[in-house]
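Quarterly update from the structural biology core.
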Amino acid sequence: MNIHDPEIETEICSEGTEVPTEREAKEALAVLRRWASGNDATAFENLAPIDAASALATGLLTDDGSLSNEYPVSLLVDKAYVAGLPDLQNGPASLIRGAKTAIQHVGISNFRLPLRYLTRRKKEMLLETSVTGSVSLEENKKGINMSRIMRSFYAHADSVFSFDVMDAALGDFVTDLDSLNARIQMRLSFPMKKQSLRSALEGYQYYDIALESAYRDGVKTRIFHLDYLYSSTCPCSLELSEHARLTRRQLATPHSQRSVARVSVEVRSGETLWFEDLVELCNRAVPTETQVMVKREDEQAFAELNAANPIFVEDAVRLFYQNLASDVRIGDFRVVASHQESLHSHDAISVLCRGPLFEQSSYDPRFFETLIHRG
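Predicted structure, tokenized:
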């Protein structure tokens, strides 16, 4: 607890020294009493008195006993000093506030660093990665040392990343933080060079990917998430447009829109599923992926490709399901599709799962908003 008031009332005592007034002292004492009433004797163990000689030597105190506001450049931080630092977060169970219950996940989110990955052609690629690491916390422990999660992960930061490396980092989490369960999620943007439909131009498509490795109750789970962007032409709108053309010679165009499928798959133990593999599985299911490089002939080709593949949101998840289910490397999976309508002011969505891993009775209220890609 820090108390800082730059306008403390003072008075001159009989010795000629400026000291806080009696009223200020009583208010400070009242604050300390309120703090003391909510803690037991163990809370006072970290309140060691300041040794005046060492405090003066390191610049923590000035000659007149007041606190120094200068940065102590000469302070020597040795093992003894570090050992004497208070560590409230790792204090005894008596310091727990609230219910004394276990916590499923506690850790840090979105610490970023460049990590190396292999492409399917075994080419190394350095990509900025956002990492979330968490562990379970037993009911009789107050907290964890958050910085240990980063330190444990950084011990593997020079490796070429794979699920095996993530599992090794998970093992360190469990050991270093004395936990039962642990989880790592790594988010990145993976570039793939894609060719235009007819002009033979090439450009980079970027895929939002997340790798997730979890260790729970002795069981390891490996999950691969991919956001796949495609165009969806409404079959109903296409038929109505053609009806207008044929019966009334009325020019009409079907509506289509940018759409997103978030595909989450469990990678079976001992199997390897490359980033490119999952992209290709999705592309075979729904070939109207958004384009990178486009000339006139490519735009015409894309219109023809959409007309050849009109698709409702229900069709989309079933087509993705069909392709994913045929791959022996994939266990349980979930497909969430969002068609961000150009006809309506709302989106059309669908969710389809195989297996119990991704089934859930409740979603984050803003879950489907996270599927909107703004480029």
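The mean pLDDT is 90.
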